[in-house]
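Attaching the record inline, Q. Sequence:
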Amino acid sequence: MTETPDHPAPGSSASDTRPVAATIIAAILLLEALGLFAAAGWYLYGLLNSTPTSLGGAIFTMVFLLVLALWLLVVCYKLAGGYRWTRSAALVFQLFVVVIAVPTLSAGIISVGLTLLVPAAAVLLLLFTKPVVAYTSRTSDSARIL
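Structure, as predicted:
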């Protein structure tokens, strides 16, 4: 018998199946991570074609973008696996995105502001749905922490 969302494999409970909301959150986090990698590439292109005012600051910003993108990939992967700590990591990142999106909207850059705000709002709403909370809060014999 094959495992489907309606019929879990023998020995697994219904709470072990990944809810659609968790898959949507993971997909949004993946797209945000890819966006950060693209921003890092664009930033690197700009650094190679101009002289930065502060080389140390430019290197720090580049490394920060790459580390943040990698971290978001880890959160995406672990959230899809149902790890409990990923909800707080995703929540904090989305709050930072909202903090950037609101002034962007206020400055009149509507397309960029909405591109940042809509996925962040979707993740913030989906993080607190019952299926996602149950999926990431389940208890079982395997003590998966990290």
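The mean pLDDT is 86. The helical segments are 20-49, 55-80, 86-106, 110-127, 130-137.

More tomorrow.
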